[in-house]
Amino acid sequence: xxxxxxxxxxxxxxxxxxxxxxxxxxxxxxxxxxxxxxxxxxxxxxxxxxxxxxxxxxxxxxxxxxxxxxxxxxxxxxxxxxxxxxxxxxxxxxxxxxxxxxxxxxxxxxxxxxxxxxxxxxxxxxxxxxxxxxxxxxxxxxxxxxxxxxxxxxxxxxxxxxxxxxxxxxxxxxxxxxxxxxxxxxxxxxxxxxxx
Length: 196
Hints:
alpha+beta, six-stranded antiparallel beta sheet, three-stranded antiparallel beta sheet, 6 helices, globular
């Protein structure tokens, strides 16, 4: 029996208990979660996991392994010319990975759309924007919103990006998204300012 297998069973068991109880619970130990709880990024599943503060301490400072603590840094940047990355959408986030690859994801009514970004283009961009070099791989993202005349660029925790994707999916109506989705996106970015 491997530790990874045993830990995976504990996590699945905790998630099953939380779903049965209808309360949001830690995906490691099943403790009830407070509002504003921390997240771990599961590199195998490529998604964040909800955890309690006690379990998050176990992964503080870990730069390798399956689980990495998602940081809380939110940094607004001056405009960044992301057109060099070749992603044709105005609401998107870019995540660098430890192996040098970079993925871009954008929200849609069906969930996240995903693209691979040219690593050399990312390196050139990071060379011209010093803050991009400081991003923690897998757990921080460059979040861009140039939709409807906006010009917002942020370094944020990846869990913020997944919240944005869920928000767009929940609010999208019809072919163009409808007015409510864009109001919700604007509110999301206003909240980033408050949380930074």
